[in-house]
Recover the amino acids of this structure.
């Protein structure tokens, strides 16, 4: 007797897909994304966190601390790639907000200078994350599953 007889898994669907699991390849691509994110943020923001002036602390301290914390937290994605998906979603979300709410109005009014263009270029690198995120998993685990109880 075939094991598919009496199974609740539709024909043509692998058990992994039915359980909402993510392939090993996808897990490794997620780990690569976390590594790039963590290393990139670490290389650009941790030197300023460790060695800064009081003036820098007053003007850029919050931004640097937030991004350094994000990079450090992203390193947990190397071990827990699926559990840390909210970090990638946060990265995608804040960059999308920046591009839509700040960069697009500047672009439409032709007010982008060289420094802003460089910022926009670095933020646009977020498009790399879009195909790496397992969207079916995100939808199944964040949209379809019931939320935690309130009381």
């Amino acid at each position: 007797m075939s094991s598919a007889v009496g199974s609740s898994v539709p024909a043509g669907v692998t058990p992994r897909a039915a359980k909402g699991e993510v392939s090993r390849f996808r897990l490794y691509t997620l780990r690569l994304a976390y590594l790039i994110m963590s290393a990139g943020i670490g290389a650009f923001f941790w030197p300023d966190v460790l060695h800064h002036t009081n003036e820098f602390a007053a003007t850029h301290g919050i931004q640097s601390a937030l991004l350094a914390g994000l990079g450090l937290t992203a390193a947990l994605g190397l071990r827990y790639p699926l559990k840390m998906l909210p970090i990638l979603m946060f990265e995608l979300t804040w960059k999308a907000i920046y591009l839509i709410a700040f960069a697009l109005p500047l672009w439409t009014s032709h007010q982008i200078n060289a420094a802003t263009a460089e910022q926009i270029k670095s933020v646009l690198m977020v498009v790399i994350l879009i195909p790496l995120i397992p969207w079916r998993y995100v939808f199944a685990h964040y949209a379809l599953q019931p939320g935690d109880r309130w009381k």
